[in-house]
From TrEMBL:
<keyword id="KW-0496">Mitochondrion</keyword>
<feature type="repeat" description="Solcar">
    <location>
        <begin position="11"/>
        <end position="103"/>
    </location>
</feature>
<keyword id="KW-0677">Repeat</keyword>
<dbReference type="InterPro" id="IPR018108">
    <property type="entry name" value="MCP_transmembrane"/>
</dbReference>
<dbReference type="Pfam" id="PF00153">
    <property type="entry name" value="Mito_carr"/>
</dbReference>
<protein>
    <recommendedName>
        <fullName>Mitochondrial thiamine pyrophosphate carrier</fullName>
    </recommendedName>
</protein>
<feature type="repeat" description="Solcar">
    <location>
        <begin position="212"/>
        <end position="307"/>
    </location>
</feature>
<feature type="repeat" description="Solcar">
    <location>
        <begin position="113"/>
        <end position="200"/>
    </location>
</feature>
<keyword id="KW-0472">Membrane</keyword>
<keyword id="KW-0813">Transport</keyword>
<dbReference type="InterPro" id="IPR002067">
    <property type="entry name" value="MCP"/>
</dbReference>
<dbReference type="InterPro" id="IPR023395">
    <property type="entry name" value="MCP_dom_sf"/>
</dbReference>
<dbReference type="GO" id="GO:0090422">
    <property type="term" value="F:thiamine pyrophosphate transmembrane transporter activity"/>
</dbReference>
<keyword id="KW-0812">Transmembrane</keyword>
<comment type="similarity">
    <text>Belongs to the mitochondrial carrier (TC 2.A.29) family.</text>
</comment>
<keyword id="KW-1133">Transmembrane helix</keyword>
<comment type="function">
    <text>Mitochondrial transporter mediating uptake of thiamine diphosphate into mitochondria. It is not clear if the antiporter activity is affected by the membrane potential or by the proton electrochemical gradient.</text>
</comment>
Length: 313
């Protein structure tokens, strides 16, 4: 359904919103542990290696250590604000994308413009969803980043109140600039590649474009997520480092404290202290997460849309 062709023509705006929200909920509930691992690796200043004294040096080791020190529930730390983030993001993203692509479809553009249309609509949809959900992203990151022994926030509402009272409302949008720079191409490439890979899959197995196929959606989503995440990864890392500024000293037991004054300063300090490879710290769990989450995100959205469409038929 996703894209320039608009497969399910009998869906209302509310149907699309519900499907987008459901997709965000399902994806987050399934993949939250991967997100926790990704954030822990991104915020670690020390090299991710067994040869140096660093807290986390591989995904299996990180899982074992987190479960040992903080309990298995820690793998879902920050899950509630993350769910708000995912539900709002999925709702706004898919609704915006479908509305924009439907308008593009009405202009009767040449079929050769489909990749450009999907990229542009995806980029705008991603940015719109980011603005709507960003405060939850900041709170989620801080909840995941804090240790059990030195907690600053005890709940989601407590985190929001503490940030607004002791810092400012603007802190809830800290890291928005690198996020915008990241989200626009990431969401654009994601939607564009999804449609391209989906087209390839349908050609290979000879399936009509109007028919929903779960395997095709999963494969296309996986590949789209891999390509999109690899293309913008350093910006995602910088965003996470910026979001913990102001509470970085509550992470001392995780290793070296990282302090920066802005996006450019963050890039420079990371390069000088961690090297060029430091800009790709946590890439492996991020790619694993991107492959899994994008596959679930798109396939669950299309599946919910198919269910709603069948009910209405």
């Amino acid at each position: 359904m996703v894209g320039f062709d608009i497969r399910q023509k009998n869906l209302t705006h509310y149907d699309i919103m519900f499907a987008g929200a459901a997709s965000g909920f399902i994806t987050r509930a399934t993949c939250q542990p991967l997100d926790v691992l990704k954030i822990r690796f991104q915020l670690q200043v020390e090299p991710i290696s067994k040869t140096v004294r660093s807290k986390y040096h591989s995904m299996p080791q990180a899982v074992r250590l987190i479960c040992k020190e903080e309990g298995i529930k820690a793998l879902w730390k920050g899950h509630i604000p993350a769910q708000f983030l995912s539900v709002v993001y999925g709702l706004v993203q898919f609704w915006t994308f479908e509305v924009l692509t439907k308008q593009a479809h009405l202009t009767n553009l040449n079929v050769s413009f489909k990749p450009l249309v999907n990229f542009s609509c995806g980029a705008i949809a991603g940015c719109s969803a980011t603005v709507a959900s960003f405060p939850f992203d900041v709170v989620r990151t801080r909840l995941v980043a804090q240790s059990e022994r030195n907690k600053l926030y005890l709940s989601v509402t407590g985190a929001f109140k503490h940030i607004i009272k002791n810092e400012s409302v603007l802190v809830l949008y800290k890291g928005l600039l690198p996020t915008f720079i990241q989200v626009a191409p990431h969401a654009g490439v994601q939607f564009m590649c999804y449609k391209i890979f989906d087209g390839f899959y349908r050609s290979l197995v000879n399936i009509d474009n109007s028919v929903f196929t779960l395997p095709g959606s999963v494969v296309s989503g996986s590949l789209a997520g891999l390509v999109a995440k690899a293309s913008i990864y350093p910006l995602d890392l910088v965003k996470k480092r910026m979001q913990i500024q102001g509470v970085e000293h509550h992470r001392r037991e995780f290793g070296t404290v990282f302090v920066c004054k802005g996006m450019i300063d963050c890039f420079i300090k990371m390069y000088h202290t961690e090297g060029i490879l430091g800009l790709f710290k946590g890439l492996n769990p991020s790619l694993v997460k991107a492959v899994v989450t994008t596959a679930i995100h798109f396939s669950s959205y299309e599946c919910v849309c198919k269910i709603i469409s069948d009910i209405r038929s």
